[in-house]
Amino acid sequence: MKRAVLVLLVIAVYVLHQDYWNWSSTRLIGFLPAGLAYHAGYSILCAMMMYILVALAWPEHLEVEESELPQTDRGEAH
User: Fold this and answer.
1) 13/17 Cα distance (integer angstroms)
2) Strand-pair partners of 27
3) Contact 2, 56 (CB under 8 A)
4) Tell me: the pLDDT tens digits for 26-74?
5) Does residue 45 contact residue 16 with C-beta atoms inside 8 Å?
6) Is the pLDDT higher at 15 or at 71?
7) CB-CB contact of 35 with 22 (8 Å)
8) Three-state secondary-structure class, residue 33
9) CA quadruple 12, 14, 17, 19: dihedral positive or negative?
10) Which whole-number Å values give the CA distances from 28 to 22, 39, 54, in the listed order?
11) pTM, rounded to two decimals
């Protein structure tokens, strides 16, 4: 279930990147172009999404220190 939610999150953020509805807008706060403001918010959304992905879906085996591995798994030349 967690994997499906994360995949849907990534798809939703991808769809939001296609901001074709924003091109007719000119200004947002009087001085900031709407497209620039949208992408600033989108960048914050992407950062939050990556935090969630790393927190929930990071593979545990990548966190094992090399010194904790058995001698045969270190990939050393014999």
Assistant:
1) 6
2) 33
3) yes
4) 766 677 887 888 889 999 999 999 999 999 988 887 777 777 777 665 5
5) yes
6) 15
7) yes
8) strand
9) negative
10) 11, 12, 33
11) 0.69
The pLDDT, as a whole number, for residue 1 is 86
Q: What is the pLDDT of residue 67?
A: 72
DSSP-based three-state secondary structure for 23:
coil
Which tokens hold the place of 16? 């939001």
pLDDT at 18 (0 to 100): 84
Amino acid symbol at 34? A
Q: Which amino acid is at 61?
A: H
**What token pair was written down for 9?**
């999150």
Residues belonging to the chain: 78
In sequence order, the 6+-apart residues with CB closer than 8 A to the CB of 22 are 34, 35, 38
What is the model's pLDDT at position 72?
Answer: 65
